[in-house]
Amino acid sequence: MADSILQKKSVCVVTGPTRGLGRSIAYQLSKKLPDGSLFILLSKNKALLDEIAGLIITHRDEIRVVTSVFDQGSSDQGQFDNVFQDCLVKAGAHVNEFEQAILVNNAGTLELLELSRDLDNVNAVNVFFSTNITGCVVLTAKFLQVFSATAMKARVIINISSLAAVSPMKSWLLYCMAKSSRDMMMKVIGEEEDNIRTLNYAPGPLATDMSVIASTETKDPSLRAWFEDQVKNKTLVECDQSVEKLITVLEKNSFANGAHIDYYDEA
Ligand SMILES: NC(=O)c1ccc[n+]([C@@H]2O[C@H](COP(=O)([O-])OP(=O)(O)OC[C@H]3O[C@@H](n4cnc5c(N)ncnc54)[C@H](OP(=O)(O)O)[C@@H]3O)[C@@H](O)[C@H]2O)c1
């Protein structure tokens, strides 16, 4: 049986840790990873990055945290080229001091929510794919370069996926495409790279800002009504509950590279 992923001293990158699921992932993983681990937290909102960094350090002073304001939808090459090196320098850390590097590709957006026949604006479609695909691909490439198979004995990439990766949802075309593409990205990287574990984790319908958007902006009436009902009746899955399931999967460490594991799957 493989060792738990969470037993190794790690450098752990989380995108979108300021709200919702990403915040819960960063906080819960910081309670599990060994002393000396380093968190690199990336998103657009500096104040909220500082807040989650402070929360982690308050509860685990043996864990180091660095934050960087980062827009995954940006086309500024320099932002991607330097982000990991800058964060390591800021932390006074070197790749060699870690047993493992973890990347949690959590940051994502739901809008543009339109029926396929209405997705006729080139710029709007490009903006969606820049944030949800292009930026994720380029950040992941930089992660694989800085935390290379030669430098690291173990690497883990977790893509936060969705039921939408495997099941069509009316008026959610771009989101479904992005999630299924990112699932495939984990399968390809799992084949290409050495010393790597790749996982797609679909966290269930969550009580976050994104589900509120789903309940108001979804154009398909039956899907919108389902989200409205879930938000109104507070029946969505709590982020901490979903992260507990993710932690169980990481501790068990028996998934095939590129597997799609859902919150509702049996542990
Ligand atoms: N909510 C659900 O029901 C549900 C279900 C299945 C899967 N998911 C997936 O779970 C993940 C998290 O969703 P959530 O519900 O927690 O969403 P959320 O509450 O809207 O939070 C999204 C996070 O992504 C970050 N983000 C958004 N755009 C960004 C950008 N351009 N650059 C960097 N960071 C960016 C945000 O940070 P800043 O605003 O600080 O930049 C925020 O921390 C997403 O991948 C989502 O698709 C959600």
Automatic annotation (TrEMBL):
Keyword Oxidoreductase: yes
Primary enzyme class: oxidoreductase
Cellular compartments per GO CC: cytoplasm
GO molecular function annotation: sepiapterin reductase (NADP+) activity
Secretion signal span: none
GO biological-process terms attached to the record: tetrahydrobiopterin biosynthetic process
InterPro entries: Biopterin_syn/organic_redct (IPR051721), NAD(P)-bd_dom_sf (IPR036291), SDR_fam (IPR002347), Sepiapterin_red (IPR006393)
Protein location: Cytoplasm
Keyword Disulfide bond: no
UniProt keyword terms in alphabetical order: Cytoplasm, NADP, Oxidoreductase
Any Pfam family matching the protein: adh_short
EC number: 1.1.1.153
Family: Belongs to the sepiapterin reductase family.
Name of the protein in its database record: Sepiapterin reductase
Source organism of the structure: Candidula unifasciata
Organismal lineage: Eukaryota, Metazoa, Spiralia, Lophotrochozoa, Mollusca
